[in-house]
Amino acid sequence: METPKIGVMDSGIGGLSVLREIHRLLPHHPTLYIADQGHLPYGPRPQAEIQTFTDAIVAHLIELGSVVVVIACNTASAAALEMLRQHYPNVPIVGMEPALKPAAENTRSGVVGVLSTRTTAEGAPYQRLLSRFGTDVRVITQVAPELVQIAEANSQHTPESRIAIEAILRPMLDAGADHIALACTHFPFLAESIQSIAGAGVQIIDPAPAVARQVARVWPADLIPKSAPNTYFTSGNPAAFQFMLKTLIGIEAEVGRISLQAENQI
Ligand code: DGL
Question: What are the pLDDT digits (tens) for 207-229?
């Protein structure tokens, strides 16, 4: 019998921004993280493909003892959350959504920016949020796949990356956005650069702490967590992921290679 744990997935290192908050809030709950770097980026992929990938990963997470699953990826949440909840009705599945509500509620300028991937921006969940919370404010949605690559490469401080980040932010900053919702879990790792370009008057919203609180709420109330090491897998390069794990969230751990190829062939 596997130790009950929190299973977390993302296409890459982005979900570590959510994992970091889960570890802060629930330090005694074992976690299992799967990064699907063999298929990164998810953002430009068709919905059906993302559904196939995430379905295989969630099956692994549950098989390995996850009693709560976190889709720590806005793109995968937009493309597959509904399907996953139908497919695995007995396991609570927590997903991400763009933090448009707090941005719209707190803006003073009446303009908010949202940074995301294409799948998230075009997906039904975001369109629903826009019609609920985007009517009285101006929302500038910026699709920014370059930021995913910059975060994966940990290259935010190079001059080229700074120019790219600045170009991505320019339209929302010029429009007067005073809140920027980070609607891709990779982007909190670029928060320092984003804040320094946007200026201190702009509030950057990372939804990870709220997601961690939701994980705490859905952890089965009668289940006392048993201590076990946190585990990490990638479908990409384990050594590269191990380096990022240390660099981004200060964790030194072995990283296993997980093969998701066979399951992903439909
Ligand atoms: N971390 C991701 C997200 O939250 C995905 C980036 C990607 O793979 O394109 O959307």
Answer: 999 999 999 999 999 999 999 99
Place of tokens 């600045």: 166
Query: Which atom number of ligand 1 is nearest to the Cα of residue 186?
Result: 1
Q: What band does 1 get if pLDDT is binned at 50, 70 and 90?
A: confident
Ligand 1 center from residue 43 Cα (angstroms) = 6
pTM over the 0.90 mark: yes
Q: E strands along 103-182, which residues? A: 111-116, 138-143, 179-182
Amino acid at 69: V
- 202 Cα to the center of ligand 1, angstroms: 23
Mutation pick for ligand 1 pocket among 186, 244, 248 (CB with most ligand atoms within 8 Å): 186
pLDDT for position 261: 63
Nearest CA to 183 out of 255, 134, 237, 252 is that of 134
| Spatial distance between the Cα atoms of 234 and 249, rounded to a whole number of angstroms | 16
Confidence at residue 44, expressed as pLDDT on a 0 to 100 scale = 96
Atom 2, ligand 1: which residue's CA is nearest? Answer: 73
Instruction: Domains for the chain: give ranges and CATH numbers.
Output: 5-96+209-257 (3.40.50.1860), 100-206 (3.40.50.1860)
Which atom, in ligand 1's list, is nearest to the CA of 72?
4
pLDDT in tens, 237-263: 999 999 999 999 999 999 999 998 644
